[in-house]
């Protein structure tokens, strides 16, 4: 029974790729607990070396935020850039649509995800960020495009 509980807790709190926090700024003061803030994080595409994505999103503070029970707002923005050489020989082997980042935005039911699309006709990597919920998702999203040159 303990192993099952440990496995459930691991699955509940596990994130996809890990992001590095670049910085944050407060946007709403809270009397108790940390203030609400906008956080900027960066993560490298796990399958395309040379591409880094920078994502901003709100993080809810207060007492619930301090203990990890708050639900973060469902808005996020993304900007992806080529930061090093890209091995173009591997691009046509990418899946058409693949999740490259995921982080929880609430205790259980809400996640922020980044999905990468490869557009071979235009030779571009397209990154889409959105937040989903088990029952009631949101169409709010943001995209960023990284053009890829020829060999």
Please give a structural write-up:
- The protein has 151 residues and is mainly beta.
- 11% of the residues lie in helices and 46% in strands.
- The chain contains two helices and eight strands.
- The strands form two sheets. The protein has a four-stranded antiparallel β-sheet with strand order 1-2-3-4, with no helix packed on it. The protein has a four-stranded antiparallel β-sheet with strand order 5-6-7-8, with no helix packed on it.
- Strand 5 and strand 6 (110-119) form a beta hairpin.
- The radius of gyration is 17 Å and the shape is elongated.
- It starts with a helix and ends with a strand.
- Mean pLDDT is 78; it is low at 1-16.
Main features:
single chain; 151 residues; mainly beta; four-stranded antiparallel sheet; 2 helices; 11% helix; disordered N terminus
Evaluate the radius of gyration.
Answer: 17 Å
Oligomer: single chain
Which parts are unreliable, with pLDDT below 50 for 5 consecutive residues or more?
Answer: 1-16
Q: Please tell me the overall pLDDT.
A: 78
Overall spatial form: elongated
